Amino acid sequence: MVTLTIDGKKVTVRKLSTVLDAIKKLNISIPTLCHHPDLTPFGGCRLCIVDIKGIARPTTACTTPVSEGMEVITTSPTLEKMRRTTLELLLSDHPDDCRVCERAGDCKLQELAYFYGIRENHFLGERRIYKKRDGNPFIERDMEKCILCGKCVRVCDEIEGVGAIDFAYRGFRTKICPPYDKDLDCEFCGQCVAVCPTGALTGKMWKQKGRQNLKEIDTICPYCGCGCNITLLIKRNDVIRVTSKPETINEGWLCVKGRFCYEFINSPERLTKPLIRVVPKESSAFSVQQTNPPFLSLSKELFREASWDEALNYIADRLKEIKEKYGPDSIAGLSSAKCTNEENYLFQKFIRAVIGTNNVDHCARY
Amino acid sequence: MSKEIKIKVCTGTGGMAAGGENVLSLFRNALLSAGIDATFSEKCSVDKVGCRGFCGMDLLVDVIVDGKKITYKYVKPEMVDRIVQEHIIRGNPVVEWMVEDDFYNFHKKQTKVVLSQCGEIDPEDINAYIEVGGYDSLKKVITSMTPEETISVIKNSGLRGRGGAGFPTGLKWEICHRKKSDKKYIICNADEGDPGAFMDRSVLEGNPHSVLEGLTIGAYSIGAEEGYVYIRAEYPLAVNRLRKAIEQSRQKGFIGNDILGKRFNFDIKIKLGAGAFVCGEETALIASIEGKRGMPRARPPFPVDSGLWGKPTVINNVETLANVPYIIKNGAEWFASFGTEKSKGTKVFALTGKVKNNGLIEVPLGITLREIIFDIGGGIEGEKMFKAVQTGGPSGGCIPAEFLDLEVDYESLAQVGSIMGSGGMVVLDETNCMVNTAKFFLEFTQAESCGKCTPCRVGTKRLLEILERITSGNGKEGDIELLEELSYYIKTSSLCGLGMTAPNPVLSTIKYFRDEYEAHIKDRRCPAVVCRDLITYSILEELCTGCGACKRACPADAIRGIRKKTHTIDTSLCIKCGTCFDVCKFKAIMKS
Predict the structure, then answer these.
(1) Of B336, B355, B389, at which residue does a domain stop?
(2) Mean pLDDT, to the nearest integer, of B409-414?
């Protein structure tokens, strides 16, 4: 453990901590843009600069390891002026369109500009102009709003292990892009969207769905047995966005399904009740060729709605019938990765002990 | 024929450009046809040698007959025959082609250590280096000295990093030597990227073995088994010669396993850089070797703690390493006898700009700027007034005439707002606009910023925009103060050395030439008549002969006039390209 003094207060932190960790432990507020607790320190935004006794120039708290007896000062008129200049410079190369930005209200840059009261800018000048591109349905990249904090690059490399994007070009023209500046073509996990502090990366389906007065509902992702914790953001009873909180078992990270594939919830094609087929399978009315038109329109002719009791009884009767007529090995069970371990255990038990066959498998084996 | 004949032809980059390769083979052929076996005979040789320093007089050829050396300048292929016939065969040197006093003056105040064999030996032949005592230092170190002893010699010599920052080399080695690690690395930083700098390039082209020897001694001292030379791919000749040198050195057993029969293994790899200026910064250089984008990271941890692949690493500049064999050979006291109290030894500078004698020089530290510019450099070209000297490349500053008697060392240059840097020295005269000079260097640093930190990426861009505004005549009251404020901010809050030093050209020009900035802003006037938007061209009636040369040359059809009558320039059409000014033989075009 190492003890150091920050703004006159003593604090003891673990040996490999950074000065920023110690500052946070004392609950002292300090602005950051490129810092993320789960990613390697970057030291790019230069907002968390502090004065450390014995070091001539201000140093970034996020990259400096603590040492015994260190004396740190987190705020002074000079430091605040430098932070202000950094913000002014970032804003001088940032579109002034908070009123239509998807991230307004949830944007760290906007928040800091608010706290530092930046209304006028000394440094207005050339702005980077980029065309929006990308045909993918998930991630909107508005590179004009990018402040090059590099969080997306690090999350893609360090958390996701994909490395789909990196810094390219030099000087003022530096930008973050996929190799050869092509369209984004990755897993679309959206981790980058989650860590982006500005409106540079947003979900395409979020567009104009709402920014304020959103109801938050914590739930579990239905897609697989991992059971990631997700938070649904609701506006007028519609799920308009999915996020995950960092203190959850999945540490706030999600995959493409959990983060972006929520449109099924309000889909008119979603099945809400069991259906029992009325037209026999052999009938020409139901063949592969004819499933091309939407399932919904066909289902009215082929199926009838039923209650759960009726449906389950029907399944039980049919399974019994088949087992008696053709033997237990004529039945096979295939379970799903969407189920929990317990559910999958029960399912194989049911197939083995009740039906009496070893014909049981799981979709994740394929 | 009993004469001993040696001919040395410069084949550095400058020499090659002046036709060195061709002249070399012509000399060989001429001597052969004259019956002198120049290639194989012990007494006769025609050698290619590295940079001689005085690149302005290339192609330089030394003809040494019986130990008497005559140097010829501006040698062209057609001159070879006459030199061979008159000088070598008949013994009468061709006086009109010989170098004159300025060549000798250029060398008078120089002290050559690193460059002592550049221009003397064939850089592509390890035997030539061994003949002049090469690799003796390595033998001495490996066979009779412990790493600690070696480090203490370097420490006592007072050698400081020649890459610019001036960190004591011995101390760096000592820290790394003490680190316990299964693996350590030593890297030679040959990513010389300053505009106008060619020191490391010339050393690598002229005497690559001295660098390899220094690198191997360093590896022995710190306990590294693997070394890298990080060199720009834009230096093909240097890369080529380095490759050859490593191969020859490996064959001779100076690198490889069990060097000189001792249990010391060391091998050197070459890593080509893609030409990013920022990769000269040590943490960016390491990232680049690791295959990442060349972006610096915050220090600490320093490379000696956690460098290449997270292992203790020493990074030394080419010139630093090239000094090492000479220090080991001649002793720490000998090296410390050159220089000032805090800066020992000699330093190589690339002297360019508006001086008469352009080239590569090596001088003892503590020499004054006046001696460098006026004695070695021969003064200002065209008898114009000296205005300033820009040292340290784009990260350095401009030093005005009042500091001409400043003794050059790391501290003194920093005191006047510049830096030693890697050793670029650009001399400026009265026809250089200082605002424009600052703008030039800032254009470079802005384009070469890696983009990681805000002050450097956006800050230098805004700085450049303000300078552009001033030089185009749109400067505003308060711009100078804004430049100073922003420069101070960039200097103090940038992540790496590039950003920390990028505003130096701006700050030093404001400090010493504030009146020029004010003239641009307040009077919309460029005192040096350089900034295009602030000058107008006109024709002086009394000098114009009406020859029409300017009219024909004008690309914008802005010049009107009847033949043999005074012409005029239509300023609304003039694009200020300056073509008329250049073509007029009667000096009738005036810039104002």
Answers:
(1) B336
(2) 89
